[in-house]
Amino acid sequence: MGVVIDNTYETVRKHFIQYLEANGHRKTPERYTILKEIYAYDGHFDIDSLYVKMRKAKHAISRATLYNTMELLLNCNLVTKHAFNENSAIYEKSFHFKQHDHILITDNNEILEFCDPRIEEIKKSIETMFDVDIIEHSLVFYAKKKLKENK
Amino acid sequence: MGVVIDNTYETVRKHFIQYLEANGHRKTPERYTILKEIYAYDGHFDIDSLYVKMRKAKHAISRATLYNTMELLLNCNLVTKHAFNENSAIYEKSFHFKQHDHILITDNNEILEFCDPRIEEIKKSIETMFDVDIIEHSLVFYAKKKLKENK
DNA sequence: CTCAATGCAAATCATTTGCACACCC
DNA sequence: GGGTGTGCAAATGATTTGCATTGAG
Fold first, then answer.
1. Most CB within 10 Å of its CB: which of A90, A108, A115, A136?
2. Is the CB of B113 under 7 A from strand C?
3. pTM greater than 0.85
């Protein structure tokens, strides 16, 4: 019961290779390294965190290459990009992961995830009402943790 | 039937004055000018557009002051700030306007607005499920206009 | 008078770009 | 070999900051 989803690095790498070949991009070691490090992340990350991670792992990969490669990974849907805060973009790996939306705990910048089918319904209504095709959406709740009642 | 809502500049100005006094901020002419120009806007705007508008109206107000004042106006809920695109922030006046969410038409960066009560329901579910208080939310649909069927 | 607010210019920070060199194809 | 990809450093663009001056209270 339930679909077995395979998003191990090996599978994801194959997907990336397909994309690179289909679009005439070179298969450089840097690109694989970046993909691997991204898929080793548990949650969300920004470019600077990724850059530091690379440095610690002794990979001499420049920021320019990180930005370049993120563009490729976005195009083949292996990562997703968010603009939660106005400063730096936040990314997360996204291959075969269940689509979800986010809750930002403003106290500590913690990021939670949730799925709610009603968003899909709203989306359908909007498409009909405005005669548009919705390509994607972003729903973020900004919240505070409820204080424990120590009555 | 229905509540009469007053968001003329005069009323909004009173609200701003209350806020300034309550927080010990000075009532400078620049602040009133900025509020007035913002409320003369029909839709959304960014800081640069506002700056140019000021210049054309012969108001010698610096960008620094614009940024400062936006902060005050955000605090007293007279404007709302969005991060639709990752570059520059987008603002809109918000006093006693019906809360709404946005559709971004990616072809031409047009911004549409909609209200859907189901978001409020989702919000309540999330608050219960995660034991948090949601302060605000942001829902954006990125869409393309549907091509006319000329069959 | 005093200190917060302003205007200007310089500083910052994420991201982009230009260019010489490296290496995938 | 040829041209894309890379690293580096410089450029960009939005926003912030430092500081001398102004003016609201």
1. A90
2. no
3. yes
